[in-house]
Amino acid sequence: MQEFDHIQSLWQSHSVEVKISSEQMLQQAKKEVNAIRNKSLFNIIGMLLSFVAMAMLWLFYDFNSWVPQLGLTIFLSAIAVSTFMLYKSHQLLAKHDFTTDPNEFLNNLKQYQLSRFSLYSKLYWFYAFALSLGIVLYFFEILSYFDLWAQGLIVVLTFGWIIFCSTLVRKAVIKKEKERIALLIEKFERLGKQFKEL
Questions:
Q1: Residue 2 lies in a domain
Q2: Structural domain count of the chain
Q3: Could you tell me if residue 4 is inside a domain?
Q4: Range of the domain at 41
Q5: Tens-digit pLDDT profile for the chain (198 aa)?
Q6: What pTM, to 2 d.p., does this model score?
């Protein structure tokens, strides 16, 4: 086992410097930036579609009580705030062309990284709490139409899904996005160094 650990440590300590042209690196960075921009835009579109779907439910369903309406209001408010925050972070990448000023874009990319961290750490818990509260208030009237076993199943599945997304999915998304943005920042820093050398 010690031999394996020794071989592994040698392998990890051995680094090969790969020379890549600034043009190739710029093409890779452009591809990755476009992928991040598109993903961010699809997140915003998805949130807007969910907002419209919930608003339609509110407009076309006749509630007997004000409690489900309050729940939907909280639900819609949480979606609206989250969509606005997604839009603000998207603007950090979308409003600048990285080919004109890579240093300014690098600063915006670092701000984007911080805004995404804030979104997934602080704002996410506000979002999850508001959605949970909205769902509880919405279920106040809606669940009365179902049998007791169906009520239990709906509640368990709904909150099980929220817990699943809050733990496993959220952590996986944070890790993947953190690595992707850190790699992109590293590429832009190397690009900046290569342009200074020219």
A1: no
A2: 1
A3: no
A4: 21-197
A5: 555 555 556 555 555 455 566 677 667 777 887 888 888 899 899 999 999 998 998 788 888 888 888 989 998 999 999 899 889 888 877 776 666 666 777 777 778 878 778 777 778 888 888 888 888 888 888 888 888 898 889 889 988 988 888 888 888 888 888 888 888 778 777 776 766 655
A6: 0.73
